[in-house]
From TrEMBL:
GO terms for molecular function: phosphorelay response regulator activity; transcription cis-regulatory region binding. Coiled coil: none annotated. The lineage of its organism: Bacteria, Bacillati, Bacillota, Clostridia, Lachnospirales. Keywords: DNA-binding, Phosphoprotein, Transcription, Transcription regulation, Two-component regulatory system. InterPro entries: CheY-like_superfamily, OmpR/PhoB-type_DNA-bd, Sig_transdc_resp-reg_receiver, WalR-like, WH-like_DNA-bd_sf. GO terms for cellular component: cytosol; protein-DNA complex. This is Stage 0 sporulation protein A homolog. GO terms for biological process: regulation of DNA-templated transcription. The modification 4-aspartylphosphate is found at residue 53. May play the central regulatory role in sporulation. It may be an element of the effector pathway responsible for the activation of sporulation genes in response to nutritional stress. Spo0A may act in concert with spo0H (a sigma factor) to control the expression of some genes that are critical to the sporulation process. It comes from Schaedlerella arabinosiphila. Residues 124-223 bind DNA. Residues 4-117 form the Response regulatory domain. It holds the Pfam family Trans_reg_C.
Amino acid sequence: MKYDCFIIDDEKLLADSTAEYFNLFGVKTAAAYSVYECRDFFREHTAQLLLLDINLGDGSGFELCRELREKTDVPILFISARTSDDDQIIALNIGGDDYIQKPYSLSVLLAKVKVVLKRYGEQGDSAYCDDWLTVDFDTRQVRAGGSPVRLTALEFRLLSYLIRHENKVISKQELFENVWEDKFTGDGTLNVHIRKIREAIERTPGKPEYILTVWGDGYRFCGGRK
């Protein structure tokens, strides 16, 4: 079964009330209360977004995040009462996409979740496929030359945006506003992410066939769909 949101939090009452609230507003949500239950959930279910606590009864949310990042690139939002800057830095460095402090407002948290789901959600075709590159927008799985490719959540979002605007020149400013949602992201940051994506998907990264630089304007995804 496919869920929009999956909550892993050992505060059962809070997890259940959050899930109930989300379901009430059309965000299909399930909850688990331990590392073991989280692993068990993913044997039969999928989720588009995770809300993950740090302190779990049978383990650490940090370690669970590292484990999950070996298998999935779905957005992970940490929810925790811990206020240390170090905790927030660790959460983001190991693959978390955001850090939300408890106690949180259910309405504000729901709004954040809806924004992330919309940002990562399906738009148009569910997949791109040609004789070399396959990108599944639903499962966020990428294969190049038949081999699986690992991209970070941001790299996948950037690649997906370019693919969905195939053969159109996309300005750097448009990418900053629609992928990062930040008008002030620097060119250097974008260039690094483009380079990493090329290294992952191109036959010859130094002579890209898919992500082409349009000097002075931006980038263009040149596809060859089946």
